[in-house]
Amino acid sequence: MKRLAGIIAVALLSMSPLFAQEISNTRRAPVVSPEITSEGITFRLRSPYATVVTLSGSWQTDRTPIAMERGDDLVWSVTVPSLDPDLYYYYFSVDGTTVLDPSNLALQRDGTSLRNIFIVDGDVSSDFKDVEPAKRGNLSSVWYDSPTIGSRRRMMVYTPVGYSQNSKVKYPVLYLLHGGGGDEEAWTSMGRAAQILDNLISSGKCVPMIVVMPNGNANQTCAPVFNVPGQESTALDNEISSDLFVTSIIKDIIPFIEANYNVVKNKDGRAISGLSMGGGHTIRTNYLFPGYFSYICPQSTGAHPHNQKRTQYAFDREQLDKYLEGIKKAGYKLFWLGCGDSDPWFEEAQEFDRILSSHGMDHVFHVTGGGHEWKNWRNYLDTFLPLLFR
Length: 390
Hints:
- There is one protein chain.
- This protein is about 30% helix and about 25% strand.
- The chain is α/β, with parallel strands linked by helices.
- Strands 11-12-14-13-15-16-17-18 form an eight-stranded mixed beta sheet, with helices on both faces. Strands 3, 4, 7, 8, 9 and 10 form a six-stranded antiparallel beta sheet that branches. Strands 1-2-6-5 form a four-stranded antiparallel beta sheet, with no helix packed on it.
- The longest helix has 25 residues, at about 1-25.
- Residues about 5-25 have low confidence and may be disordered.
């Protein structure tokens, strides 16, 4: 028995160098991705059994996947030229299957799709970055009853740092609306709304405010990723649901916020903005309920809501003139319209600009490059927030 034990001990000792080598082989250096340097941006993915790996990113104009090369360490990599300061998303494809970057925990959700993100530092992107904890506001998921729509619904509410420390302070409110295909988390996930607010408020460029981000799809109670029983997984973007949601802003959402938060309860303490479909909701709300908002900031839209053209809800120029005269008579402090010159809605935005001028309505027409994209909408938010509640 002792002889057997000795043989086993000798065998184990003889194997120990091999065992140590095996252990060292498994302790691979961590993969760094993306790595941003002055020479470019390098993306890496360890995938030992892959045969074809590609990279796709939001900076690409032709959307052609970029081929990656496998190194001796079984890590696939590629370096792209330096990019302008901004926020970008990207993803990998491994043998035809979309794969996220496991080395990068920064993500955004667009509908049901997740994408990795990174930020290239610069003036344009400085407000997109996270601030230190002492300067951060709170972002809450809030459920509220909507008798107008007939369901209990979810929205995101941002409160600025220091909100809970003094109940006597009354804050103005921005109602911020998402576009088609989005939900109540679109502005915080892709729009970086919380980070932009934190940065602007902490630097004194923006009045501390509460920002309410509801779900603009009347047939959804919340974002479809939460799998609420009986909920529609696909948004219903039609004229009926549009007016239901618009009415719910006035009848359900504003009363809930003003009953549960320390806010200014008049039109000078309210602003409304939205992108694309949400831009249509923004102007439709003011057409139907003039006098509720002193700050009106539609983005990437025209005078007619997106989903009401060529329907029974469409209106002619005579009705449009009545709507605009109603807004003018009710009074407002800022009418701010933003659109990119490559946006499919740019011509309609230009026409809206001309019509507002024909009514003698003071307004800002903020034109940028680019199209119907978050690159613009993040920057629009960053641009008009300092103009609110002054």
